[in-house]
Write a structure and sequence with these properties.
GO cellular component, one term: mismatch repair complex
Family: Belongs to the DNA mismatch repair MutL/HexB family.
Oligomer: single chain
Radius of gyration: 27 Å
Number of helices: 18
Bound molecules: adenosine-5'-diphosphate, magnesium ion
Shape: globular
Distance between the termini: 82 Å
GO molecular function, one term: ATP hydrolysis activity
Helix content: 25-40%
Keywords: DNA damage, DNA repair
Pfam families: DNA_mis_repair (PF01119), HATPase_c_3 (PF13589), MutL_C (PF08676)
Strand content: 25-35%
Strand order of the largest sheet: 7-6-5-8-3-2-9-10
CATH topology of the largest domain: Heat Shock Protein 90
C-alpha cells in the first residue's frame, strides 16, 4: 500500500533526486519496475529521450487507489517510518521519482494492473512545478495485463535551459543505454529490451546466467572468455562483523578495454557507477591486466542493509559503507581468488619492437648520469644515479617512448590508414554502438572505415556487429580491428582532449607494440636513454610514473647506520 511519508521521515532523506537528463528518468522507471518484481522490462526511447521514454514491466502493478497516489510527492509503498531507512532493501524509498518526472515533463501517463479484471490509467498533464499540492491529474479505467507502463513525453519542454544543456540525441541515448546495460548485466534473471527510435539495440534473455547477458552486451568473444564466481568475505567495523557476498562474472584478461566503465557493479541490487568499487575490481586483476588496460566484468555485492547507506547521494549514484576500505578489500580479494582458479590461458601475443623502426635518439638524455645495474622480475630496471637508486618501470617507459615517437611521426605525416583484407568482424556493445553512431565522423577521420553488418535486432542478441574495412596505421603499425571499441569510447569521452592524441596513447600502450620483457643489457641501457630524451620522461602517456627514486638516506635509516657514507 502506498502512503505519504511524514515530514520527520522526509527530513532524514537526502534532498530529492534531480531529473537531470533523460537517463535519470530511465533509471528511476527501471528501478521501479525491478522493485515491483518484474521479469521483463522494456525500455523505449525516441530521439534524445525528451521526445518520449516508455518503460513497461510485468511486475505486480498497482490497484487504482495506489496508482492515483503514486504520482504525488512523498508517497511510497517502500518505507513507512524513518526507522526503516536503516534497513530499506528496495531501490526506491523517497517517493519522489514519479512526481519529479511528471513535473519536468509535458505529460506522464501511467497504466497499471495489479492482476484484477481491469487496469487503471493515470495521466498527469502540463508539468509545471508541482509543489506539495495537487496537479492536473486524471484517473480512468484502462485495459492492461498485470504490470505497469509509464510513458513520459515532452521532457523539459518548459525548461529550455535544461533542454539546451543536453548533448546530441545519440549521446543522450548512449547514456540511457549505459544505465540499462548496467542493470541488464547485474540482473541477468530479468529480461531487458531496449529500443531506440523503434530499433532494438539490446535484448537480454533473462535466463539468470551471466554468460547469456554478457553475450547480448559484448558478443561471443567476451562471453566465451569469462568465468563466474561466488564468494563470501567477513568484514568488521567498530566491533561488529558482517558477511559480504560477492558474485558475478569476470572476463579473462585477454578481453580488456581502455576505460573502466565496463566494470559493472551493484550493491544490494542497485547498479552503480561507483569508482571505488570499480577500482577494487581492477586491483583484483592486478598484473594479469596488460598495462593501461581495464577489465570487463560484472560484480555484485550483497551486505546487510545497515552496512550500506544509499541515502548519501541525491541521485543515488554512490553509496556510503560502514567501512569502505574493508568492502573494497573484500571485492579485490574475491576477484583475485576467482581469477587464480579460472582458466586463463592467454592467446599468444606477438611482441613487436617499435623502436627498431625509429630514428636514433638525438636529444640529450636527462638520464645521462644513470647506469643500469640490474633488473627485477623482468619488469623493473634498477639504476644507479648519483646517490639515488632509480627504479624504472620498463612497460611504462616503453609506452612513453612509443607515444612520443608516434606523436612526432603523426605531426609530420598524419595518420595513414590501411585496409583490412578481408574485413574483420567486430561486435560492439549497444552503448559503444550508440557512441560510434554519435561520433562516426571523428572515428573515420582517425582512419577507421566501418560498415554495419546487418541489424543487431535480427540475431536477437542485440549486439551490433560491424565490418572493419580499414584501420589507422601510424608509422605503418596497423591498429587491431577490435581496438574499435576503445577508440569509440576514447573519442566519445574526449572532453577537450584531441581524439587523435587519445588514439596514440592507446596505440602506444597496446600490448602488440610493446617490447617483450626479456631485454638484453644493451636494450635496457637504450631504453633508459630514450626515456631520458622524452619531452615528459617521468610519466607514461596515461599519467602513471615511469621512474621511482629511493635515495641513499632511506637505506641509511633502514639499516640503522649513523652516517650517509659507508664505513
Ligand atoms: P519510490 O520508488 O521511492 O517509492 P516513486 O515515485 O518512484 O517512489 O514511486 C512511488 C510508488 O509508486 C512506489 O513506492 C510504488 O509503490 C509505486 N510504483 C511506481 N512504479 C511502479 C511499478 N512500475 N510497478 C508497481 N508499482 C510502482
Ligand atoms: Mg522509485
Amino acid at each position: 500500500m502506498i502512503r505519504r511519508l511524514d515530514p520527520g521521515t522526509r527530513s532524514k532523506i537526502a534532498a530529492g533526486e534531480v531529473v537531470a537528463r533523460p537517463a535519470s528518468v530511465a533509471v528511476e522507471l527501471v528501478e521501479n519496475a525491478l522493485d515491483a518484481g518484474a521479469e521483463t522490462v522494456e525500455i523505449e526511447v525516441d530521439g534524445d529521450g525528451t521526445d518520449r521514454i516508455r518503460v513497461a514491466d510485468d511486475g505486480r502493478g498497482m490497484a487504482e487507489s495506489d496508482a492515483a497516489l503514486a504520482v504525488e510527492r512523498y508517497t511510497t509503498s517502500k518505507l513507512s517510518a524513518a526507522d526503516d531507512l536503516e534497513t530499506v532493501e528496495t531501490l526506491g524509498f523517497r517517493g519522489e521519482a514519479l512526481p519529479s518526472i511528471a513535473a519536468a515533463a509535458a505529460r506522464l501517463e501511467l497504466t497499471t494492473n495489479d492482476g484484477g479484471p481491469r487496469g487503471t490509467r493515470v495521466v498527469v498533464d502540463g508539468g509545471g512545478d508541482a509543489t506539495d499540492g495537487e496537479h492536473d491529474k486524471t484517473v480512468s479505467p484502462a485495459g492492461r495485463a498485470r504490470g505497469t507502463t509509464v510513458e513520459v513525453t515532452g521532457l523539459f519542454s518548459d525548461r529550455p535551459a535544461r533542454k539546451k544543456s543536453l548533448a546530441s540525441p545519440k549521446a543522450e541515448f548512449a547514456r540511457v543505454s549505459a544505465v540499462v546495460t548496467r542493470y541488464a548485466l547485474t540482473r541477468p534473471d530479468v529480461r531487458f529490451v531496449l529500443r531506440h527510435d523503434g530499433r532494438e539495440t539490446l535484448a537480454t534473455p533473462g535466463t539468470d546466467r551471466f554468460a547469456d547477458a554478457l553475450l547480448a552486451v559484448y558478443g561471443r568473444d567476451a562471453a566465451s572468455h569469462a568465468s563466474t564466481f561466488d564468494s563470501s568475505r567477513e568484514v568488521s567495523a567498530a566491533g561488529e562483523t558482517a558477511a559480504v557476498e560477492v558474485d558475478g562474472a569476470l572476463c579473462h584478461p585477454e578481453v580488456t578495454r581502455s576505460r573502466r566503465d565496463h566494470v559493472h557493479v551493484s550493491v544490494n541490487g542497485r547498479a552503480l557507477a561507483e569508482p571505488r568499487l570499480r577500482r577494487a575490481v581492477a586491483d583484483g586483476y592486478g598484473t594479469l591486466l596488460p598495462d593501461g588496460r581495464e577489465p570487463v566484468g560484472v560484480v555484485r555485492l550483497r551486505l546487510p542493509p545497515a552496512w550500506v547507506d544509499h541515502n548519501v547521494h541525491p541521485a543515488k549514484d554512490e553509496v556510503g559503507f560502514r567501512d569502505a576500505d574493508a568492502v573494497a578489500e573484500a571485492v579485490e580479494s574475491s576477484v583475485r581468488d576467482a581469477l587464480s582458479t579460472a582458466d586463463l590461458r592467454r592467446s599468444g601475443e606477438v611482441a613487436m619492437d617499435l623502436d627498431s623502426s625509429l630514428a636514433p635518439v638525438e636529444a640529450a638524455s636527462v638520464f645521462d648520469d644513470l647506469r643500469v645495474i640490474g633488473r627485477f622480475r623482468g619488469l623493473y630496471l634498477l639504476c644507479e644515479a648519483g646517490d639515488e637508486l632509480l627504479v624504472v618501470d620498463q612497460h611504462a617507459a616503453h609506452e612513453r617512448i612509443n607515444y612520443e615517437r608516434l606523436r612526432e611521426a603523426v605531426e609530420s605525416a598524419g595518420i595513414d590508414a590501411v585496409s583490412v583484407d578481408p574485413p574483420a568482424t567486430v561486435s560492439l556493445s549497444p552503448t559503444d554502438a550508440a557512441l560510434l553512431d554519435a561520433n562516426r565522423d571523428l572515428v573515420e577521420k582517425l582512419g577507421f572505415r566501418v560498415a554495419e553488418f546487418g541489424d543487431g535486432s535480427r540475431s536477437g542478441s542485440g549486439t551490433g556487429t560491424y565490418r572493419v574495412e580499414a584501420v589507422p596505421a601510424p608509422l605503418g603499425r596497423p591498429f587491431a580491428p577490435d581496438a574499435l571499441a576503445d577508440v569509440v569510447a576514447d573519442v566519445a569521452a574526449g572532453d577537450d582532449a584531441d581524439p587523435r592524441d587519445e588514439l596514440l596513447k592507446d596505440l602506444a600502450c597496446h600490448p602488440s607494440i610493446k617490447a617483450g620483457d626479456d631485454l638484453t643489457d644493451d636494450d635496457a641501457a637504450r631504453l633508459v636513454e630514450r626515456l631520458g630524451s622524452c619531452e615528459t620522461p617521468y610519466t607514461c602517456p596515461h599519467g602513471r610514473p615511469t621512474v621511482l627514486a629511493i635515495d641513499e638516506e632511506t637505506f641509511v635509516r633502514g639499516f640503522g647506520r649513523r652516517s650517509g657514507r659507508l664505513g
